Amino acid sequence: MEIRISRSAFKHGIPREDLMHALRHPLRRIDLDDGLTMSIGPSRSGSLLEVCIVTDDDGPRVIHAMRARRKFLWRP
Fold it and tell me: Is 22 helix (H, G, I), strand (E, B) or coil?
């Protein structure tokens, strides 16, 4: 199933290729409330990104992407 990407995912200027690279190479996945999953992975240059995915009846959709914040890097 293909992952759709919402316009909101580009708010922080992360290119589609970097966002997809981070999703294909996750270092960590964190299940959040309300069907949200935060995936932490590297961009093509190696900087860590946080990518938030919501899954609904239409399948998975990326709604957020930005440089990874500390709270997601060190969360137990």
Answer: helix
